Fold these 3 entries.
Entry 1:
Amino acid sequence: MNFKFGVDTFIWAEAYGEEHLWIIPKAKELGFEVIDFAISNPFTFPVEKVKAELERVGIDCVCTTTLTPETNPISPDAEIRAEGVKAMKKCVDICNELGAPILGGVNYAGWGYLTKKPRTEEEWNWGVECMREVAEYAKETGDVTICVECVNRFETHFLNIQKMQLHSVRMLEQEMSRFISMSST
């Protein structure tokens, strides 16, 4: 396996937009080989301009996203869950367009979504159902690997211990070969 030294755009911009294109050559200038685009809103992400700048500069990329309360795949509201799937599929499209092999992040629940109760079986089933749909879409449309980032209990109650993270991956990898876990530091 060939590892590359990379940087996340999130250290410069919380919501990456066209005005942040300068980050791409800056990352290359600092010696990074890959840049991680933190996609806060896939529907406003400047895909074409980012792709052109990546090609001009000559740096590889991966993508991460953080879902919101309005795109939460474990929401009790079916319409919100559907918006989560829609947002994740758009992120997969962005990865395919940019040639990014990885889509990681808190992509299984709305970041900051806390019920002050343990995760329920219903939430688990909703999350698996949504992620299964997105993973199948990723498999059908390109070669994007979806990575699940386990975060602390102050960011979500859904996946914050590695045991549950690995359990979620194992449940999905039976059907989807392009699904792995990643750990947050």
Note: The CA atoms of residues 34 and 59 lie 6 Å apart.
Entry 2:
Amino acid sequence: MYKTNHAQETGRALMESLSYGNPTYQDQVYKSLIDLMSCTLPKAQQLVLQTLRAVQLKQKTAHHSIVKPLLNMLRSPHIEVQTEAINLILDLRHYNVRGLLLSGLVTLLRPIRKEEEQHPKTQETERIEITGSLPEFLQQAAAAKPIRER
């Protein structure tokens, strides 16, 4: 486990230093980090978000492709991933993607259930809607945090 964490930290440091040391490749590193947000390991997600946050500070604008995967990070059950995603969202509120982020955060506050789309509302479905599920509550709580910080 130690070797894996060490390798991940080393990879994070390398990506960050590549963006600092090579201004001509800064955009490539930035876009590669956005692509890496789709990884599924929580520790890797956390490290990618930390690195992306550092690299984003050097960017004059934010690439619009960062919004969807970043909002997906708020669905993570891992608080470390959510915290890093929230920190990046708070940084991005000063960039050109502010409107997209706000719209996405509001959408996450009320998730759409597939059952809702397919079946008419009954007393039973209303009760299910009220009780919700833990992943939805985590998503809603994570989406509310950056909105509150505005």
Note: The chain has one domain: 2-113+121-148.
Entry 3:
Amino acid sequence: MTISARAVARFAHFNPSRALRWIFAAAVVAAVAAPDIAAAATRARVARPGAFDGTWNVTFTPQAGNCHATNTVPFNVYGTQVSSAGGGRVTGGISRNGSVAVRIQVGASWANGRGRLAGNAGAGRWSGLITGDRCSGVWQAMRS
């Protein structure tokens, strides 16, 4: 292996203090830019208006288990977040293509639901523990 005279000449005038100043300057630029990058990442995680925004009336119909009552419950959708519009705790969300996955809790009762929204309607399946009984069924939604 040979080293050219030009490469050796570049390092002949190496100044460590000058190199440290460049490193320090780069670190200052990175530190100044970091808050803007962190703020942009935070803004990206915040829910933004989406195609499914609004209040949805969801009708839960039992098909199996010792649950017989059909219930209609309102939900709010904003961006990718789904929340209760009428009581209870709702966790989960909705993707841009309309896929929904949520968990609903009211007192000791809970249910998990999956499905899809499209336009102003949607449908899916649910299962859970309602007043102590295992139940499952289907749900249908209409945007109001």
Note: Residues 20 and 26 are 10 Å apart (CA to CA).
